[in-house]
Amino acid sequence: MAFTILGFTVSWPLVGTLVAIIVGYEIWHMTYFKRKGIKGPNPFPVVGNSIDLFQGIHWKTQEYVKKYGNVFGLFMLSSPVFVISDLEMVKDITVKSFSKFMNHKTFVLKSRPFDKVLTSLKDQHWKDVRNVITPSFSAVKMKQLSVLLNESSDTLVKNFGVIQEKEGKVKVFDLFEAFTMDGIAKCGFGIQVDSQNDPSDPFVTNAKDLMKNTFSLKFLIAATFPGIGKIMDYYGVSTISPKIASFFLSVVDQAIAARKESGGSKMKDFLQLMLNAAQENKSEKDKPQDEKVEGDLHALIEDQDNKSYFDLKKSKKTTLTKDEIYGQAIIFFLAGYATIHTTLGFVTYCLATNPEVQDKLIEEIDNETPTRDDVGYNSIAKMSYLDNVVCEILRLYPASVLVERQCNETHVCNGITIPKDSQVMFPVFAIHRDPALWPDPEKFDPERFTKENREGRHPLAWMPFGAGPRNCIGMRFALMEIKMATVRLLQKYRFETCPETPIPVKFAKMGLKPDDDLYLRVVERS
What we know:
Radius of gyration: 24 Å
Transmembrane segments: 6-28
Subcellular location: Endoplasmic reticulum membrane
CATH class: Mainly Alpha
Binding site for heme: 472
Oligomer: single chain
Cofactor: heme
Number of strands: 11
Low-confidence stretches: none
Shape: globular
CATH architecture: Orthogonal Bundle
């Protein structure tokens, strides 16, 4: 018996044979790790381990580490992934053998200009763009941006008091989302947005739609079936709606045009810093030297990650194309938005549930930054207990629960062969809660990050911003905004629990964020 498809006569036995071949190959493909002698959860054809992972990838990877050890394999849809939490192997891959693991996995459906964001770039292109924009995140530039953040913090402090008086409690994530959007709009694009008071602002509505559209159904189809994804990519199918992409492109275009007309080269936002990079990078001799801030531990970490790589591999590229500027401006928003507001929400929650920590932090703030105008990049960089608190929050609630790399050259690591084109992931959440590294790991304890305790621990036991030369370039900015907002709020208020405060936090299945918002009481300090 036969039937016709597109003019071709096809028999049912042929269809059955083809289906059997496809199913057979898929079953064989899912034995990839068993054939290598690597343990891991049993995958299902086509979807791999994704069904389990969608129930909470942070909890699941932690469960898998306990069950299968520091190296195991799983399938993200149909793609095999090596999951490694052995810190010496992590160090080898991210630092020592970085040249073999320089890139992130390529996802289909390249949406202009999202295909030019730093996280998507590869090899020399990535190195060139990173070299150009790295000075935009120096201590000198952060000091300039801190002035803008202090202005956004004025509204944040005011709104916490207003809502507490009106409602008797505050939904902290709501307020921090708005504050983060305002701060990034101002520091990234030079745009004055008041999403804290005007949620209907076009920038606010399009930004929220952008966050919702990042992982759309089209993206899921393309990731599950790479062949279909390539066809979609060929025909220009985008994961981001043309309306949203067009809005952000026009925002950048209008901002650049306005600067040219007004001679706004002295503006201090990230967009202007990228535009200025062309001039500053023309001559090494004329480039401003980065300012060293005593006690700035994160600048020291960044220097160690970058100097061994970037200083030895200079790039001739001094400017960015328009699409590269578009891409970096947008990733500045995307990467910073979730990281900053989520961390701030947990800072206030942990302070409210640990009043002795809050007392100690307030004491440091009163001594080091007693007034609004005392708050800036230099002052917060020197506040050791503030840093301890923020680092402990990022240990318990890391913004990135997984860090990913792709192998571009077959590599043997600790006796395990990682073939070329393999994907490698580091389960940051599981590492951060490993009792062998962090005694009583579920406990909130900022003392873990005293100088003595840091020195006695593996340097990669804490990596919420990744590790090695491909770490998060915006680490300094994110830490600065988190710390500045925390200091400004604690200058005026204390945080306390209220009857609606969930203890412990009830998390949503996807990501480290509460299932609902977090309610706290805000008490004005006398």
